[in-house]
């Protein structure tokens, strides 16, 4: 997947981790991902705020790894493929 860096408004997150734009199926997304420091909620596994913009509007999500080390989202309506794509990019950057 081809990611390119872009700037995005980050009014809900504190520390920018990465920003990118990508196409999933027929929709283009702009995302900004920021690491959040809420270790008590996530058992030190990492917690990320995701600001996502598309033609459907702008949404904010929380992503984190569960006890099985899989990426999950606080909103069950976000497509699993998108959670996986964003989580995989976080993992790749952290390596």
Poorly predicted regions are 1-13
Mean of the pLDDT scores?
75
Strand order of the largest sheet: 1-2-3-4-5
Oligomer: single chain
- Number of strand segments: 5
Task: Bin the strand percentage.
Answer: 35-45%
Helix content: 10-25%
N-to-C order of helices and strands: EEHEEEH
Determine the N-to-C terminus distance: 17 Å
Structurally, the number of domains stands at 1
* Biggest sheet overview: 5 strands, antiparallel
Radius of gyration: 13 Å
Structural class: alpha+beta
Principal-axes geometry comes out as: globular
Count of DSSP-assigned helices:
2
Please tell me about this protein's structure.
The chain is of the alpha+beta class. The chain has one domain. Helices cover 20% and strands 42% of the residues. It has two helices and five strands. The longest helix has 15 residues.
Index terms:
5-stranded antiparallel β-sheet; 95 residues; alpha+beta; single chain; disordered N terminus; 20% helix
TL;DR?
With 95 residues, the protein is of the alpha+beta class.
Strand and helix layout:
Blueprint (H helix, E strand, L loop, with lengths): L14 E10 L2 E10 L2 H4 L4 E8 L2 E9 L5 E3 L6 H15 L1
Antiparallel strand pairs: 1-2, 2-3, 3-4, 4-5
């Amino acid at each position: 997947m081809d990611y390119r860096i872009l700037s995005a408004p980050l009014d809900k997150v504190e520390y920018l981790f990465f920003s990118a734009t990508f196409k999933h199926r027929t929709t283009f997304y702009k995302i900004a991902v920021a690491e959040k420091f809420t270790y008590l909620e996530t058992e030190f596994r990492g917690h990320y705020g995701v600001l996502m913009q598309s033609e459907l509007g702008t949404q904010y999500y929380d992503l984190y790894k569960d006890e099985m080390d899989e990426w999950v989202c606080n909103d069950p309506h976000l497509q699993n493929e998108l959670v996986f794509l964003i989580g995989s990019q976080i993992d790749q950057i952290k390596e």
